Amino acid sequence: MTIAQRPEPGTRIVFRWRKWDGSPHWEHDGVYLGSDEWGDWVGQPTGWRSHRPGRQFTAESPNVTLITSDPTWAGTFYGGMHPRQVRIYIDIAWDVEWTGSEPTAIDMDLDVVRCDDERGIWIDDEDEWDEHRALYGYPADVQAMLIAKAAELKAQVAAETAPFDDATAQRWLDRLAGWHPGDAA
């Protein structure tokens, strides 16, 4: 397996998601921030665009996404200023990888979410998961693996073990706050 080249920190990139059948899904404009022992970090400043066919929005607060060597998830971390009090949003995925110098992944519908309000921590979009695993024909072994992964990640988020503690992501949120568009390599 060839390891994809990472861009220089400060380089603008697009994180491209697709569905199991290859159809386009979310694309998030971002900036490559660098890597640490947990993986690669991509930032998205407030106001930057995310879009998919039929829908788009701009980031309501700065966020950083961790891309690990585990191809079954990518986690997005928000500072304490998110208007809906979202702190962590983990996309359960398939084939999270670097294609060329940009990240790509298959969205598998399940999400682990932590909010700083009464909602707490939960697994989201289980209805969409049920619909899509039938529609797209997710293999049984893939289904079992991803259901277990969602439960494992939910437990890690609840325990606040790194990288799901606030301090790990805060280092990258601080780096994003110090980045300016003219800083790109």
Characterization of this structure:
The chain has helices at residues 126-136, 140-159, 166-177; strands at 12-18, 24-36, 39-44, 49-52, 55-58, 63-67, 73-78, 86-99, 102-115, 121-124. With 185 residues, it is an alpha+beta fold. It has a single domain (12-171), classed as FomD-like (FomD barrel-like fold), CATH 2.40.380. Strands 1-2-3-6-7-8-9 form a seven-stranded mixed β-barrel. A hairpin with a 2-residue loop joins β8 (86-99) and β9. The protein is globular, with a radius of gyration of 16 Å. The mean pLDDT is 93.
List keywords for this structure.
FomD barrel-like fold; single chain; globular; 3 helices; 185 residues; alpha+beta; 10 strands
